[in-house]
Design brief:
Structural class: mainly alpha
Strand content: under 5%
Number of helices: 32
Largest sheet: 2 strands, antiparallel
Shape: elongated
Helix content: over 70%
Length: 789
């Protein structure tokens, strides 16, 4: 298990060295690493268990990994498709810049995704989750000279990392409530977890926070907008990250927490989110003018199907989500590879410029046919079966809910599936019809590009064939494997109602061609029939949807994203001009005002209690000292010149020294006197170069400064009262008294504390002073050179 997760990161670290020897053949080195990972994942198939190594014992955090059917499925996709994508890259990336960085980041991503799949500790899961976002950022922005690549990389980073922070908050709520970060422990007792979250009123917040994290990663509406822009990455990245693996992290999260948190709240959130995304993204795919844009929106749509499946509170829902994770990867990854072949050999990705490609690319056309018909949900291709499970789950949910608004579940599922059928046939149509005259000669792809797509196409066809064989009573290992995934995502109640786990002789997952008329069969027939009827109007439908979004820009999620991001940029620019205007007075105003607001807000938020009495020193002597200090402070504010103000201000410093004397701290008093004297001398030397008088009051600025000064004084007073009212553990003082001589070798407790007990702090402070002194000396030395900055 640890070798599996560590191997890709070690290989990524070695990639720069390997690239010096292998050059572009580094692709096959990376493919070999992925193949080794695939073998390790395959060796884990059929096992369940936890392995761990302590990481932060004081917090109960461990590098722990959990093996079950769902983890193995995601691991197989990450490593298996990784083998094919790395091999494909050997042909696609020929002559491309930055290949060393490309393969390093892609290997690091594979390791991160394997970590996400198998992580059992919540904090470890979060670390790997964010590593996928970082490596994805590098890969999407691979073409750093292109503005679109930088825009897409930044958008994906902001949305996925932002969603990850919401997910982390959900993890912390869960761990704080249950007292453990171990996902395996939580899954062992899901009922106790649900009850505990409900008892403290944190169930809804936890589900919503996890849902936001999943929606951001899996491009669910309205956070779907990063995925089309991510298509600026090289096609191998799109095929790997944005169809088969990274975007699966979000649906994996939903599937992983489904046995733990499934219920009415879960169903309300995820079925609505999934069905809306499935429909909206499918409609957007119809408006696409670029083949990778079409596939990007279709990816978001099918991820919505998986989310909706996991949302339904039934075993059919678990089967829908589990099976479609596999099916979607098997038909979408080859479609992206086919899109790369088309763009690479035809020189364009514009849908309007493509057509009749089957003659020049016959094998590619065959792969596209298998994958496109699977994506469309046409029987007997693989996507049909999991779409059928969705229809069954939606119909069952409506019936069990007693109808009403619940009938929107099957209605929306069919409506969205019609658009899925349309864009799938549109992609397939690129290989048929007449070839545009402007297209020119289309070359055959190299074997390194064609073979990986062919392997995925064959696997997709095999899954479809499995349904045909099951219809006549011949069952394939696919069913047993999917059953292990269903066992990982279904609740104990669902499995018990269905007769227990399939592997224990109870309910067993199976899929087959329909042999009788059912609501799901009618829904599939309606989908295909309506799709065929609407096909002649495909362009008109796409133009109408585009026109509606152009007429009402807020309908586009990008309208809100761009407005927020670029609006913040403009706000930042204006803020900089106001705040950083080169005036020390302005800097001091913003700094002190911020400190006052944060400090007082902190005190109010924590509901601090002020001391009822002021301690011990408040006698006649101290009252006299404080009175002198107040008069000196007033004198500073009315001083007619810089020098008079500094001299008067020094009185305050000397009064502080007297307070230390009254508090029986002569060493501090001596230090204060030395510092105050030295500061006074330095100020007078500097002030000798400044004008003699302050000048007249102008406008309301003096009153603003006066109010701010009073606020700062009040904040300091409150802070001192609160700090001095504390009663620290006397054991700490006793420790210093008892150990000053034996451990520090000195009789002055303060000096020993500074030099020995907190020596590193003191060394850091001395380093800061030394650096400041060097800076001052540098500026003084540069003064005579005439340099302006």
């Amino acid at each position: 298990m640890f070798a599996l997760v560590a191997l890709p990161f070690v290989a990524a670290a070695l990639t720069p060295v390997v690239f010096r020897f292998l050059g572009e053949r580094t692709a096959y080195y990376a493919a070999a690493v992925a193949l080794a990972c695939l073998a390790l994942v395959a060796s884990l198939s059929g096992t369940t268990g936890v392995v761990e190594v302590r990481w932060i014992p004081s917090l109960g955090v461990s590098f722990s990994f959990y093996v079950d059917g769902l983890a193995v499925l995601i691991g197989l996709l990450a490593s298996g498709i990784g083998v094919l994508v790395f091999t494909y890259s050997g042909g696609y990336m020929h002559g491309e810049p930055g290949q060393e960085k490309f393969y390093t980041a892609l290997l690091a991503f594979m390791g991160s995704m394997l970590g996400v799949a198998f992580a059992s500790d919540l904090l470890v899961l979060f670390v790997f989750w964010e590593l996928t976002s970082i490596s994805s950022f590098v890969l999407i922005g691979h073409y750093t000279d292109e503005r679109a690549s930088r825009y897409g990389a930044r958008k994906s980073m902001l949305i996925t990392v932002g969603g990850g922070l919401f997910m982390l908050a959900g993890f912390l709520l869960l761990a704080t409530t249950m007292g453990t970060y171990s996902l395996a422990e939580l899954l062992n007792n899901p009922e106790a977890t649900r009850q505990a979250l409900h008892s403290v009123g944190l169930f809804w917040p936890t589900v919503i926070l996890l849902g936001i994290g999943a929606a951001a990663k899996s491009a669910q509406v309205p956070l779907h907008i990063w995925l089309p822009n991510a298509m600026e990455a090289p096609t191998p990245v799109s095929a790997y990250l944005h169809s088969a693996t990274m975007v699966k992290a979000g649906v994996y999260l939903v599937g992983r927490f489904r046995p733990l948190l499934a219920g009415d709240e879960w169903t309300t959130l995820f079925t609505v989110l999934g069905l809306v995304t499935m429909t909206v993204a499918a409609m957007l795919a119809v408006t696409a003018t670029d083949i990778k844009e079409l596939l990007a929106y279709s990816t978001a749509s099918h991820l919505g199907l998986i989310i909706a499946g996991f949302g339904f509170n039934s075993l059919l829902g678990a089967e829908t989500g589990s099976f479609h994770i596999l099916n979607h990867a098997l038909f979408k990854a080859p479609l992206f590879l086919v899109a790369g072949i088309v763009a690479h050999e035809a020189g364009t990705r514009k849908i309007s410029e493509l057509g009749g490609l089957r003659n020049a690319l016959p094998w590619t056309a065959a792969i596209a046919a298998i994958a496109s018909l699977g994506m469309a949900g046409v029987p007997p291709f693989n996507g049909f079966y999991s779409k059928e499970f969705l229809f069954e789950a939606a119909w069952e949910a409506a019936v069990h809910a007693g109808g009403g608004l619940a009938w929107l579940y099957p209605a929306i599922a069919v409506f969205g599936s019609v658009f899925t059928f349309l864009y799938s046939i549109k992609f397939l149509s690129l290989f048929f019809g007449e070839k545009p005259d402007a297209l020119g000669h289309v070359h055959s792809p190299p074997l390194a590009m064609l073979a990986p797509a062919g392997v995925l196409g064959v696997l997709a066809a095999f899954v479809g064939l499995g349904g045909v064989l099951a219809t006549v009573g011949i069952h394939t290992p696919i069913e047993g494997f999917v059953q292990s995934v269903v066992d990982s995502t279904a609740t104990h109640t669902e499995l018990a109602a269905a007769g227990g786990h399939g592997e224990s002789g109870g309910h067993a997952f199976t899929y087959y061609l329909p042999t009788y008329l059912s609501p799901a069969v009618l829904m599939s027939a309606a989908t295909i029939g309506l799709g065929i009827v609407a096909w002649p109007f495909y362009d008109r439908i796409g133009n109408a949807l585009t026109g509606a979004m152009d007429a009402v820009p807020p309908l586009r999620a990008n309208y809100w994203y761009d407005g927020a991001v670029f609006g913040l940029n403009a706000f930042s620019s204006r803020t900089v001009r106001v705040v950083q205007n080169g005036l020390l007075r302005t800097y001091a105003t913003w700094t002190f005002a911020t400190i006052v607001v944060l400090a007082l807000a902190g005190y109010a938020g924590t509901r601090v209690t002020f001391p009822s009495t002021v301690s011990g020193l408040l006698g006649p002597a101290l009252i006299l000292v404080l009175l002198v200090a107040v008069l000196a402070a007033f004198a500073v504010s009315v001083a007619p010149s810089h020098i008079a103000g500094v001299l008067t201000l020094s009185i305050l410093g000397f009064m502080v020294a007297i307070v230390y004397i009254l508090a029986s701290a002569p060493d501090l008093a001596l230090t204060q006197l030395a510092v105050e004297t030295l500061t006074l001398v330095i100020f007078l030397l500097v002030l000798d170069q400044l004008p003699a008088f302050y000048g007249d009051f102008v406008g309301t600025r003096p009153w603003r400064d006066a109010v701010l000064s009073l606020a700062v004084g009040a904040t300091v007073t409150v802070t001192v009262l609160l700090a001095t009212s504390a009663t620290p553990d006397k054991g700490l003082a006793h420790y210093f008294v008892e150990n000053t001589v034996p451990l520090g070798g000195g009789h002055n407790i303060v000096n020993v504390i500074l030099v020995d007990f907190r020596g590193f702090d003191t060394m850091g402070e001395i380093s800061v002073v030394a650096m400041a002194a060097l800076s001052v000396l540098t500026l003084v030395a540069m003064r005579e050179r005439g340099e302006l900055s």
